[in-house]
Design a protein that fits this description.
five-stranded antiparallel β-sheet, three-stranded antiparallel β-sheet, about 25% strand, globular
Length: about 190
């Protein structure tokens, strides 16, 4: 099946690649789950999910980056979407994540976000990484902290989400590189 243009990143347990048509079934499951979708725009019908997936694939074509589809190496299952995201009117250069419920609690968000941030800093030249997090989303705040990010300031998303409360978490590329160098020196290495 065709895949949107872009790189494939590999971690110990995951492949990160641009979206492909075969991702739709699991992506639609994620967006149909009220708990999983509550902080990412809410429940969507399959047809709405297809359009949202198309927007991410289109970001790859228009900007040369977009969120990756996260694929488990062992099972081949689509586990979520993660990576660079900056649509029109966005409050900054974001590394975002949303995982399928079957992928929760496995450490995939940190593993994949680490690879995505490395790529965004090294290949896109991003100087700041943000994460747009709903104030009530404690699991995402925990992921942000594990990535070395901290609360920066309140934020605002563009329409149609302009009334949704949002916190901006993040760090500079310089801080990210220093953290990654310290991890490598201590034996933590790359994810």
């Amino acid at each position: 099946m065709p895949v949107a243009p872009g790189p494939i990143l590999e971690t110990a347990r995951l492949l990160l690649r641009p979206p492909a048509p075969e991702d739709l079934d699991r992506w639609a499951e994620l967006m149909a789950d009220p708990v999983a979708a509550r902080y990412i725009g809410g429940v969507m019908a399959r047809s709405q999910t297809w359009r949202a997936m198309g927007a991410i694939a289109g970001s790859w074509a228009l900007h040369g980056f977009g969120m990756f589809s996260l694929i488990e190496k062992d099972s081949g299952l689509w586990a979520g979407r993660i990576g660079p995201w900056r649509p029109e009117g966005w409050p900054g250069t974001e590394i975002a994540w949303s995982l399928h419920p079957s992928a929760w609690g496995k450490g995939y968000a940190v593993e994949a976000a680490t690879a995505a941030i490395d790529w965004a800093v090294d290949q896109l030249g991003w100087t700041e990484i943000i994460h747009c997090i709903d104030p009530a989303n404690q699991p995402s705040k925990a992921v942000a902290r594990r990535l070395g990010s901290a609360y920066l300031r309140p934020g605002q998303l563009p329409a149609p989400f302009e009334t949704s409360p949002i916190e901006l978490w993040g760090q500079t590329a310089e801080a990210w590189r220093a953290r990654r160098a310290a991890e490598a020196q201590s034996g933590g290495g790359r994810a």
